[in-house]
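Run log, item B.
One chain of 231 residues. Sequence copied directly from the ordering sheet:
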Amino acid sequence: MHISEFTRSLADRLPGWQPDPTAVPIATDPASDRIWDSGPLPYAAFDTDSVSRSMLTHHWGLQLYVMPRPHRPSEYLVLPMLPANTSHKHVQGLRAPRGIAVSADPVRAAAELHRRLVTDYRLASSTAIRRSSPGHFQVHVTLDDRQRHRIRTGSIAVFIELLAYGGFLLDPATGECHLPDALSTEETRRQLVKSLQRLRRRGFRIIVHAADGPRSHPPLPRLTSRPGRRR
């Protein structure tokens, strides 16, 4: 079974998790630096071009690195990534959720993930994300070297808004949220503004980092429903 097909089959059995439609050679994969715990993965595996990985993403800002287990054709490796917005310094002192080997049968593999990894991963990640917070109820928007918007925050509520409802993706190489490159400039602008406005109405302050310095956009008043007319 191809790695992308295996990952899709896992996602069908893991509520809240979405598969990455692309497979990436691990030898040229910058996301490998963000693996939190490599479990039974031998370091030498990254020296080959013949192995590709896929990714599972949860709207809490979590990702699982999925790849065939070297020299074990009947198994795959599922490795926890650093949570969104975090780096290795944010997980120092935390007990890392262990990367595990799972069966090549997606039904058995999903059950193994539920039992041995997913719960521990969520619990450990919530602490790491809180440590990475740039400020209480703050969302930071920057531009990368290709002038694409990137969003950083230390709030799971923001990840849910962006990843579950806003059409954003989570970059496994950086831990940042971003909109798909396939969107047009106008579509990107419209979707970005819509999501940021929703966050402001939920009490978040948006800080946009521009060339002339940061610009702060305070929370907006919450929308209230108009009272019905009395008869």
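Observations after the first pass:
- The chain has two domains: 3-131, 138-217.
- Residues 106-131 form the longest helix (26 residues).
Flagged for discussion on Thursday.
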